[in-house]
Structures are given as C-alpha cells and as structure tokens.
Design brief:
With about 300 residues, this protein is an all-alpha fold. It has 14 helices and no strands. Helix 4 runs antiparallel to helix 10. Keywords: Cell membrane, Membrane, Transmembrane, Transmembrane helix, Transport.
Length: about 300
C-alpha cells in the first residue's frame, strides 16, 4: 500500500515537474521569438510609414501613417535597380558554381582509391585556420586580371572547405554497393557522380546552396575591395552600406538633401532613416522568402551530412 502511494506521489511530482518545464520553455521561446522578430518588424513599420512622420519617433510594431513612397523612391533609382540585378545574378551563378564544384571535389575526396585524399583533405582544412591575408589576396586577384570584373565574385569563393566537409561526410555515408554495382555496369567516375551521387545528396546540396546563397547575397566587402570604382558591378548590399555610411557621417539635414526630392517638385519626401529602413527590408526579403522552400532539406542535410553514417 505504501509502495503504491509512493509511486503515485512520484508520478505526480514528475508530472508537475514536466508541466513547469514546458511552461518555462514556452515562456523562454516566446521571449526569444519576440527579441528576434521585433527589430525586423520595427524596421518594416518605419519603411511603411511616412518619412516626415517617422522623424517624430514612437513607431514600434505598426506604421502610424501608411505609405509606399519609400519603396517607390528606392526602386525609382536606376543604380539601386541595377545593383539588385547584379546581386541576384551573382547569387544564382555563385551558388550553382559553388555547389557543383564543391560536390565534385567532395566526391573525389570520399573515394578510398584516391591515394592523395588525406593530403588534400589536410591541405583544405589548413586554409580554414590560416590564410594569406588581405593584401596577398588582393595582389593575387589583381595578377589574375579579375579586378573590375564580375567573376571576382564567383571564382575566389568557388569551393568552400566547410561545405566540402559536409558534402564529403554525406557521400561517405552512402552504401558502397551502389557504387560497386555502377562500376560493374561500366560507369566511370563522372557518370557515377552525375547519375548516382548527385540525386542521392540533394538534401546536403540544398544545405550548402542555402549557405552559399546567403553568403553571396550579403557580401559587400569584395565589392568595396575589387569593384568600388565600377558602378556597373555594384551590389545591393554595397549600396545599402553606402547609404548607412552617409547617414552616420552626415547631419540629418545634409543627408536628407541627398536622398530626398525637393518638396517643390511634388515628389514624395524621404529621409535617411526611411531610406535606410526600406533598403534593409529590400535586401532581407529575398533570402527570407527562399528559406521556407529549403528548410526541410536544410535540417536533413545538417543532421545527416554532419555525421558519417
């Protein structure tokens, strides 16, 4: 009888402990979501609010005076529209090239018959911890004739070591029987890679594609370093950086004179704050819209590709 009562009391205490844990976990996650989303929601509210009214402050979650004039102004600028096109182009081309080349090298490094696989692996990993530095990298790009060209966005980052390791780990987890059967049927390495390996490693390729796309889309320092004098190759992130820099280094009135149209011309008035918020939303939305379509592959690729099967 006493044992039954003790077991019942123990189950009751466990049940209460589980409920307390769930409540604390829900509260923590709610606070985390609020802290994470609030800056973006607040920026969106400022971007959708009238610029002159936003100067007064007090905008938190919703605009006080709704308007799309800030977005109309941003997309009416030819430089920003062209920069958007360059950003999309470098993201698409850079992601495809990076994923394909990294997958090919990862497949080679995963083959047991490749006698130099350990040496090549160590050489790649060494570059993760030690690099030549900024100046040698710049001199190398200059000597290769890529200064002022679009390909400076693509070729230097063609293969990422971290991506390489993830893909290689995923490939090493594939059944060896599949490769042996294909080799018996007369398939060469390239045929096995294209027809067998690539379809089987789609989850990890989607993960690498997301990493690469985010990196290409958010990159602006390479534009500043190699193409700052070529406005035709400016990217959206670089244009945002220039706007933020102008906003921080100039007075509000001076920056407003630069970014705002004259009230006498009948054009909508904008301010540095409204332009900064609008540009932040513009450069963030594409990646936010792409992620939901890759989420299931991203989770699977990270859990399976990160641990050898």
């Amino acid at each position: 009888m006493e044992a039954s009562q003790q077991a019942s009391s123990s189950r009751r205490n466990t049940h209460i402990g589980d409920r307390l844990f769930d409540i604390c976990n829900i509260i923590f996650m709610f606070v985390l979501v609020v802290v994470t989303l609030y800056p973006f929601v607040n920026t969106l509210a400022v971007a959708l609010n009238d610029a002159n009214d936003a100067v007064r402050g007090g905008i938190y979650l919703f605009p006080r005076m709704w308007t799309f004039d800030n977005f109309k102004y941003v997309f009416s600028e030819a430089a920003i529209v062209h920069a958007f096109f360059i950003s999309v182009l470098r993201t698409v081309i850079g992601t495809v090239v990076t994923v394909f080349c990294s997958a090919m090298v990862a497949y080679t490094m995963s083959r047991q018959e490749y006698v130099l696989r350990k040496f090549v692996t160590v050489s790649f990993i060494f570059t993760m911890y030690f690099s030549g530095g900024l100046i040698p990298g710049y001199l190398l790009v200059r000597d290769l004739g890529m200064l002022g060209s679009f390909w400076v966005y693509i070729i230097p980052g063609m293969i990422g070591v971290f991506n390489l390791i993830i893909i290689r780990s995923f490939i090493e987890g594939l059944p060896d029987g599949i490769m042996e059967a294909a080799r018996i049927d007369g398939a060469n390495d390239f045929s096995m890679f294209m027809r067998i390996v690539l379809p089987l490693v789609v989850p990890v390729l989607a993960t690498v594609a997301l990493f690469s796309a985010v990196g290409q889309w958010n990159s602006w320092f390479d534009v500043f370093l190699y193409n700052s004098s070529n406005e035709n190759l400016s990217t959206l992130q670089y244009e945002l950086m220039k706007i933020l820099q102008n906003t921080n280094t100039q007075t509000s009135q001076t920056a407003a004179d630069i970014f705002a149209s004259s009230a006498n011309s009948g054009a909508a008035t904008v301010t540095p704050t409204s332009i900064r918020s609008t540009m932040t939303i513009v450069v963030s939305l594409p990646i936010i819209m792409v992620y939901p379509f890759l989420q299931k592959y991203f989770v699977k690729g990270m859990t399976v590709g990160g641990v050898k099967g």
